[in-house]
C-alpha cells in the first residue's frame, strides 16, 4: 500500500483532538556526552504513557458503526493493550484484550482501569492467536493488530511529524524497533516531510530480528528474545518490514548494559521516567558517537510505562 503525505496529514487531523502534542526536551549535559544536539520527543507523556495511543486511536476512529457495536480485540502484553482499551473507552465501545498470563501486573491493572476486558492465555504466540480467534468468533469484534496494520503505522508516524514541524532541520531521527510500527511510521513521516533527515533504529542485541531481517533481505522471525526492553520483543510484520527495508538507513544494536545506562542517564539528567525500550534509541547514539558527531538528532522516547517495582538500577 502506498502511504502518501495526504494520508499522514489526514491521520494527524483525525487524532489531534484526542491525543497530547507531547513536548520536546533537550539536555545540555546529554548533548555534551553525545557530542551532538539531541531533541527528545517525549511520548512517555502521551495519554496512557506511550506513542501507541496514536495508532490505536487512528484505527478505532475509522471503524464503521456496525463494527463499533461489536467492539475491538487485540493481543498484547503491554502498551498496545492499554492504548486500545483507552481508545475504545473514548469511543464508548468494548475492547477485548488477550494478554499472556505473565504480562506485568501493572499493565493488566491499567487495561482494566481503562475498561478493557482481559482474556488470559499461555505466554506464547500460538496461544495468543488461537485465543484471539476464539474471542473474535464469539464477539464479532474487529481485530486490530498492535503494529502490522497500515492505520496503526500511520498513527504512529504522527509523533515524528510533530517533531519535524518543531525542528525542521534534523539530520537524523532515531526510534526503537520492536514490531516496527513506530519505526515504519517515523520513516514515512521523514520521507514526506523532511526528506534530508535519515531514519535510524536502535534495537537490543538480545532481540535483533529487525537487524537480521535487513541483513538477509527477508523477514527473520524473532526467536527466544532476551532483553530488559520488554516493549521490543516482537518480530517485524509483513507490512512493517518492506517500509523499513526501503526507508530506514540502518539499525544499531545495543547491549543490555548500554540500555540500562542510557535509561539511567535520562532519569537522572532529564528528571523524566522512561521505560527501557525508550532508552534504546539514546543508547544507539551513544554507541556510535562518531557517526552522529555535531549533528542534530531527534530521538523518540517511546513510552514511560515502567514497572517501578522492578527497576534495573
UniProtKB/TrEMBL annotation:
Q: Which UniProt keywords apply?
A: Lyase, Pyridoxal phosphate
Is the Ion transport keyword given for this protein? no
InterPro entries in the record: TrpB-like_PALP, TrpB-like_PALP_sf
Tryptophan synthase beta chain-like PALP domain mapped to chain residues: 16-303
Q: Which cofactor does it need?
A: pyridoxal 5'-phosphate
Q: What is this protein called?
A: Pyridoxal-phosphate dependent enzyme
Native organism taxonomy: Bacteria, Pseudomonadati, Bacteroidota, Bacteroidia, Marinilabiliales
Q: Which GO BP annotation is one of this protein's?
A: D-serine biosynthetic process
Q: Which residues form a coiled coil?
A: none
- Give the matching CDD domains: Thr-dehyd
Q: Which Pfam families match?
A: PALP
Q: Name one GO molecular function term.
A: magnesium ion binding
The record's comment on protein family reads:
Belongs to the serine/threonine dehydratase family.
Amino acid at each position: 500500500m502506498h502511504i502518501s503525505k495526504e494520508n499522514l496529514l489526514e491521520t494527524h487531523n483525525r487524532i489531534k483532538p484526542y491525543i497530547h502534542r507531547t513536548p520536546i526536551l533537550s539536555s545540555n549535559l546529554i548533548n555534551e556526552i553525545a557530542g551532538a544536539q539531541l531533541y527528545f520527543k517525549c511520548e512517555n507523556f502521551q495519554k496512557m504513557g506511550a506513542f501507541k495511543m496514536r495508532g490505536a486511536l487512528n484505527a478505532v476512529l475509522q471503524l464503521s458503526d456496525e463494527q463499533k457495536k461489536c467492539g475491538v480485540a487485540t493481543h498484547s502484553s503491554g502498551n498496545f493493550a492499554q492504548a486500545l482499551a483507552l481508545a475504545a473507552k473514548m469511543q464508548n465501545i468494548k475492547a477485548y484484550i488477550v494478554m499472556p498470563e505473565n504480562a506485568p501486573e501493572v499493565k493488566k491493572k491499567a487495561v482494566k482501569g481503562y475498561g478493557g476486558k482481559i482474556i488470559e492465555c499461555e505466554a506464547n504466540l500460538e496461544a495468543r492467536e488461537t485465543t484471539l480467534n476464539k474471542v473474535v468468533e464469539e464477539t464479532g469484534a474487529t481485530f486490530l493488530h498492535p503494529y502490522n496494520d497500515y492505520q496503526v503505522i500511520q498513527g504512529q508516524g504522527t509523533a515524528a511529524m510533530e517533531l519535524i514541524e518543531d525542528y525542521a532541520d534534523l539530520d537524523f531521527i532515531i526510534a526503537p524497533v520492536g514490531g516496527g510500527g513506530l519505526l515504519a511510521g517515523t520513516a514515512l513521516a521523514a520521507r514526506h516531510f523532511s526528506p534530508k533527515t535519515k531514519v535510524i533504529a536502535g534495537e537490543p542485541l538480545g532481540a535483533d530480528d529487525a537487524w537480521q531481517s535487513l541483513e538477509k533481505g527477508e523477514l527473520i522471525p524473532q526467536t527466544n528474545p532476551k532483553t530488559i526492553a520488554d516493549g521490543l520483543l516482537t518480530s517485524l510484520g509483513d507490512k512493517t518490514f518492506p517500509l523499513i527495508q526501503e526507508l530506514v538507513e540502518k539499525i544499531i544494536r545495543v547491549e543490555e548494559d548500554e540500555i540500562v545506562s542510557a535509561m539511567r542517564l535520562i532519569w537522572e539528567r532529564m528528571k523524566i521516567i522512561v521505560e527501557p525500550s525508550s532508552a534504546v534509541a539514546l543508547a544507539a547514539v551513544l554507541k556510535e558517537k562518531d557517526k552522529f558527531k555535531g549533528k542534530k538528532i531527534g530521538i523518540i522516547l517511546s513510552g514511560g510505562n515502567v514497572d517501578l517495582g522492578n527497576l534495573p538500577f
